[in-house]
Design goal:
- The structure is a single chain.
- This protein is of the alpha/beta class and 312 residues long.
- It has one domain.
- It contains 10 helices and 10 strands.
- It has a 6-stranded mixed sheet, sandwiched between helices. It has a two-stranded parallel sheet with strand order 4-5. The chain has a two-stranded antiparallel sheet with strand order 9-10.
- The longest helix has 37 residues.
- It is globular.
- One of its GO terms (cellular component) is plasma membrane.
Length: 312
């Protein structure tokens, strides 16, 4: 009874903490971005980018604190732990909930470079978000359609070249690039609609991951294949976190080498495209087994079975 009564209070505490901290950190990053915008001197911009990255790490620490603010979350992290803040990584991750981002921030704030995302060019003009992400040197991608390339062949490969140029800034600041390969959060309905061949996951989309490797592959020290599970959150994981009902977070980390056969022109080379899709699908089959192992470790049987769908 008392627990039920306290739920609204926990939601207010957790939501207010997350919102206030995000607003403060966001404003600090934007303040750093203003002189960076006005002073296009490489040495000055690198210094300001490093400062912004340090402030961004404070947000990572804050998101990590969120997991213990009103509830004793137990972390079950297995796999590779020899990670370093001064290296470059690409993350392949399943997408269960929006809570995945604070989970990755929790991991990164301790022993990984702070994460970056590839963003659509249009997001630059979104108030606060655009300037904040620009200050943090997150690449804004401008993709050209086949129709645009057909009308102007000079655009062929220009998106790759432009993004590679923007990513040169990452040579000065160790970076982790995140790819949620499924492209959307997992739900039973999506699993059924996509007729997924995986028991606990949606089919992965290879294009974005291949593009990231084509653009930055030679900068990465390793690929981090990360699997996240919330075994005891039968309802919304976001609600479970905010209401203090999230009890366990299971994470598996596997480090993979960046080999030359993973770097190629996915959108122009049909043989490479097939090879890369096969590679990513094989990783996803392995991830599916790891996911099942995490759920079994937590003492929860699978909630989804290939062929038909049911809720526990």
């Amino acid at each position: 009874m008392l627990t039920t009564v306290l739920l609204p209070l926990k939601v207010v505490i957790n939501f207010s903490f997350a919102a206030i901290i995000t607003a403060i950190i966001g404003c600090l990053i934007i303040l750093i971005g203003l002189p960076k915008l006005l002073l296009p001197v490489p040495a000055v911009q690198r210094m300001l980018s490093t400062l912004a990255n340090s402030v961004f790490r404070l947000w990572g620490y804050a998101m990590s604190m969120l997991f213990g603010l009103t509830q004793p979350v137990r972390w079950h992290i297995e796999g590779d732990s020899e990670l370093h803040r001064d290296r470059w990584y690409m993350i392949l991750c399943n997408h269960q909930s929006w809570v995945d981002i604070p989970v990755l921030m929790h991991l990164a704030s301790r022993n990984m470079p702070m994460p970056r995302f590839f963003l659509k060019q249009e997001l630059f003009w979104v108030p606060v978000i655009g300037l904040g992400c620009w200050t943090l040197d997150m690449p804004f991608m401008k993709r050209y359609s086949r129709a645009q390339i057909a009308r102007n062949p000079n655009l062929q490969g220009k998106d790759i070249a432009t993004t590679q140029k923007k990513c040169e800034k990452f040579r000065h600041i160790p970076t982790t690039v995140i790819n949620f390969c499924e492209g959307t959060r997992f739900t039973v309905e999506k699993h059924q609609r996509k007729n997924s061949a995986f028991q606990h996951l949606l089919p992965p989309k290879a294009g974005g991951t291949a593009f990231t490797l084509q653009t930055m592959g030679h900068q990465f020290d390793a690929i981090l294949d990360i699997t996240i599970a919330y075994p005891h959150s039968s309802k919304s994981t976001v609600w479970a976190l905010l209401s203090g009902q999230l009890r366990d977070v299971y994470v598996n980390v596997e480090t993979l080498p960046v080999t030359e056969d993973l770097i190629g022109s996915y959108f122009e080379d049909a043989l490479f495209k097939t090879h890369f899709q096969n590679w990513l699908n094989s990783r996803w089959h392995r991830k599916d087994k790891i996911m099942g192992g995490l759920l079994e470790q937590a003492g929860q049987p699978p909630t989804v079975t290939v062929g038909y769908f049911s809720s526990k």
